[in-house]
Amino acid sequence: MTTAIKQVWVQRFCTGSLSLILASGFFSCGNLPLSQLNLGFNVASIGDVQQKRQVDAEVYLRGKVENRAPFVGNAAYQLEDGTGSIWILTTQEDLPQLGDEVLLKGEVRYKSITLKELAGKDLGEVYVEEMEQLKRTPAANK
User: Fold this and answer.
1) What is the pLDDT of residues 87-137, one digit of tens each?
2) Which of 14, 45, 54, 142 has its CA at 20 to 30 Å from residue 84's CA atom?
3) Is 136 helix (H, G, I), strand (E, B) or coil?
4) Are 89 and 109 in contact (CB under 8 A)?
5) Residues 34/137, Cβ–Cβ less than 8 Å
């Protein structure tokens, strides 16, 4: 094979390979769930937040609204991401609807609940106090 033919073959091989890699990347991105796209935020998994219990830590979470609980003066909604679920305490009046995808910034909190009947066993739960809701995708738009 002459040098000119080798160069053309190598160029076409490299260009073809690069095109294939880029095309497969673009097509596979369409199949990723929204929870895998970070948009520049270091999004934590809910399972990690539940397990680590780093109280007062600032976290970014993304998930689907699975439950809602309106209260007087504030509200809560349960967020699920496939690794677990967690309650989000918010002061927003416009509570996300069931099935909405939410990206939020919040602070990890822990509420201890002990019962004498259970020999002082702690039944407390980790939750997140919403600081800012960064993005909400209504369930109807998916």
Assistant:
1) 999 998 889 999 999 999 999 999 888 877 777 777 789 999 999 999 999
2) 142
3) strand
4) yes
5) yes
Region of residue 26 (left: phi > 0; alpha: psi -120 to 50; beta: else): alpha
Neighbour-count burial of 79, counting CB atoms closer than 10 A to its CB (0-12 exposed, 13-18 middle, 19+ buried): buried
Taking CA atoms, 134 is separated from 11, 15, 114, in Å, by 44, 39, 35
Token representation of residue 91? 């002061």
Interior CA angle at 121 toward 115 and 123, to 5°? 75
User: Residues 122, 114: contact at Cβ < 8 Å?
Assistant: yes
Closest CA to 106 of 81, 89, 93: 89
pTM > 0.70: no
Q: Which tokens in the block code for residue 70?
A: 């309106």
Q: Which amino acid is located at 120 in the chain?
A: G
Cα(46)–Cα(137) distance, integer angstroms: 19
